[in-house]
Amino acid sequence: MKLFSLLFILLTAITHITAQANETDRSWNQPVEPFKIAGNVYYVGANEITSYLITTPKGHILIDSGFKETVPQIRANVGKLGFKIEDIRYLLNSQAHYDHAAGLADLRTITGAKLLASVEDAKLLARGGKDDPNFGDRFPYEPVTADMTFSDGWKLKFGGTTMTANITPGHTKGCTSWSTTVNEGGKKLNVIFVCSTTAPGYKLVDNPKYPDIAHDFERTFTRMKKFKVDIFLSAHGNQFKLDEKLALLRSGTKVNPFIDPKGYPEYLVETEKAFRELLASQIATR
Ligand SMILES: [Zn+2]
After folding, report:
1. Which pLDDT value is given to residue 19?
2. Quick one: pLDDT at residue 4?
3. Whole-number Cα distances in Å, 217 to 80, 145, 221, 234, 236
């Protein structure tokens, strides 16, 4: 009897640890059949929480882990595409928030890959998302220590692919929008993996944990507007209309729907408007 109750407590505890916290998280973590976006860039993430595989002859690169619960999907997706998860050599992260970083610890164990992070987001990764300037301790995850940190403009050159780290701070202090180029139909296309320029409920004025936050967002918008983008990807599926584009791709459209030079500036305009409204309202009620 005693053993039985102990087992029960143990099982409940395990379920509690592995079950996803809320309905929104679960709705963001629905499986998606993996597919090729363009060139050597593949989609291996969930419906809203994205994850990208960039393949090279020397081994692969993965951007973002999703939630801890996304990891089994990523693992299965990489396999379905005919690649081996063990061949992933580098783990990259867009932003050190739980919905994009909570699975990094597990992925590193599975792959043995090196985790590369921006100087500032490496600190948040090492705190397991705690003491976030806007979320405090609300969204913790298993802490991970980066194997190497980098600053703005650093390039990962591996297996013929170059990934450039553009630090676009605001959403997190070390928010990293990776960029690369792919060859598609004889054309060289610019690809961006946007970190995020959203400020959901953020404290943009008098934020003691991030005094420069509004200034950082301003600089990020100015800078990101200058990027010439052909293929617009992001940490969240809805930001680049993943659903719509994937439906078009599966319908057999001739033009790759992920080539979307208009979608990128539109996203910036939209998020900058939201940022400015939030900032103005916070200045007004200061
Ligand atoms: Zn975030």
Report:
1. 58
2. 47
3. 38, 26, 6, 17, 18
> 234 CA to middle of ligand 1, Å?
11
For residues 231 and 207, the answer to whether their CB atoms sit within 8 Å is: no
CA 189 – ligand 1 centroid, Å: 27
Q: How many Å lie between the centroid of ligand 1 and the Cα of residue 195?
A: 8
Contact criterion met (CB below 8 Å) for 53 and 36: no
> What residue ranges of the chain have pLDDT lower than 70?
1-19, 21
Distance CA 221, CA 41 (A): 25
User: How far apart are the CA of 116 and the centre of ligand 1, in A?
Assistant: 18
CA of 171 to the centre of ligand 1 (A): 6
Number of Cβ within 10 Å of residue 22's Cβ equals 8
Side by side, the strands of the sheet bearing 114-118 are 35-38, 41-43, 52-54, 60-63, 88-92, 114-118, 148-150
Q: How far is the CA of 197 from the centre of ligand 1 (A)?
A: 9
- Reported as a single tens digit per residue, the pLDDT across 233-256 is 999 999 999 999 999 999 999 999
Closest CA to 258 of 272, 277, 238, 244: 244
Q: How many whole angstroms from 175 Cα to the centroid of ligand 1?
A: 9
Cβ atoms 193, 234 nearer than 8 A? yes
DSSP letters of 237-252?
Answer: GGGGTHHHHHHHHHTT
* Side chain identity, residue 211: P
